[in-house]
Queue: 2 jobs
Job 1
Amino acid sequence: MPINLQHVYSESVVKRILHMGRLQKQLCQFVLEHFEKTYSKDLGDSWNKAREVLTHPGSWQYAVLLNNFTSPLEVEKNLQNKGYHLLFHETISDCPSTLKCYIKRKPGKFPSQRHQDDKLKDYYMLNASSLLPVLALQVKDGESVLDMCAAPGGKSIALLQCASPGHLHCNEPDIHRSRWLKQTLASFVPTTQIHSISTSELDGRLIGKFYSKSYDKVLVDAPCSNDRSWLFTSDSKQSTARISQRKMLPLLQIELLRSAVEALRSGGSLVYSTCTLSKAENSDVISNILNSYNDIIPVDLRYMTRLLSNEFLFAPDVPHGILVIPDKRKSWGPMFVAKLMKI
């Protein structure tokens, strides 16, 4: 039987409890000041729009990715009744019909589903911009695909909504995150499909050595200075450590991309993505790779900015890729996406 708080506490106490729940995310001023200095320079006026959204979690939107391995017809009807609409099908002609993602303009979160050992989940909650790297990769049936930094598994699940790879290799070096990844896969993929998926806990920088020229497509959703979570770092020591760590991330990202290039077959393509606005972790990393290889060329993704401008705010003139900037009623991102091809 549910407990009525007002039967236990006075009305004023109830209000304070509910208010405390809304304030669980505490903005870290130290990180915000660092972002202010960096992004004001890199993004100009676009940073003002991003800052207004990123610092107010109440304005964040959440997308609902349906699982085509189940029959979520009731979920789909419920979403439509609540004002959600399909994200891609009317704008990108080559979007697979099996990739169904629902969004709505207003902030708010559709209820999540809990993991059950004997039942697949009907949908996955995510930031809608997280699907752009998946669309950019354009996975086809039968291809060998590597998701190099796969946890928590959302992009792997999205890949499986688009096509049936001959082999999907999901790698995550962190043991705890790897467990999370495996649970995600178990929650969304039927046992009849699991045989085409393998998982590993390798350092992504070594995969190119161990699996040289093994994959048709590679996704590198790289570790980055996640702007949303870093702005709400819990204590000053952690925030100081993260800002210090930020200087080292581009080196790691470059090493992961070099490994991805080595793992890629000739004629194959890779997508690099981050959830940060940092130019040093985005365009500069791609520039380094393009300057290091004669057989790697960039693939133009600007068609996405033209087709999806009604749903996402894209930063103008981003070298080597596209960048989603959070905005009011388009609070998706940050998400940088770049595509490279091995010739």
Job 2
Amino acid sequence: MSDKHEHGDIKSLPESRLRIAFALTFSFMLVEFIGGYLTGSLALISDAMHMMTDAFALLLALIAIRAGKKAADYLKTYGYVRFEILAAMLNAVILLAVAFYVLYEAYRRISATPDIQSAGMLIVASAGLAVNLIAMQLLKNSKDDSLNVKGAYLEVWADMLGSVGVIIGAVIIWLTGWLIVDSVIAVLIGFMVFPRTWILLKSCINILLQGTPENIRISDITDEINKHDEIVSAHNVHLWALTQSNYVLTAHLIYKKDADHNTIRRLLTDSIHKKFNIDNITFQMEQEKPE
């Protein structure tokens, strides 16, 4: 296997920016956990747990980059790029676990809400918001190139909203003394996890099951093939994704008996690549049988 043969999205991922974002997120995660414990704020602890998943997602993205750079071989002919999908799926499962924990803890606090230091809660949440905004800026330009980076970006984005919620809750508690607001904010932050986690999990499952990419229809592929005058029919058409933006297409084509199959293959490969951005295309060519 050639060590120059690359698959996946790892060439476009900003490893240095991911390292900076991970360092910032992980460091402040610890600050938020300590701050939540000292102030008694469940909302702050909830936000810290969100930040923990952010840090984990960034770490998995870094690991996925390193794994994806390993050369393909005869045992792993596409290399290790799909480690990214496994990492993103694991991250989605962890997000669900965090959400359920926060909901349980909020329920437990209904009957016994502890004292909450709103001033400390406000200071820590404001600093957390600043860290989230910096991390979002670092990831923004590459969020559409990798499912793992996209997952990390979505988590930081949701955590940014969570920090805003904690800040609002701290102000309300400071002005009114309504301690129950802390648990309400924590629950709202927890519920923010579910829709984005489902989107991420759905994408991962579709890729792992070799489903058709969500942005391409098989019928569009077959229509493009059948537009060629020398093609009699196309069948056994399969389209799947190795990663979020690395697609694979195979098809069995029957061409007219007087046609040049090499020319047909070249023309179809070029047109499908340009129209659908598919790099890995394999056509099995078969001449039309005489009647």
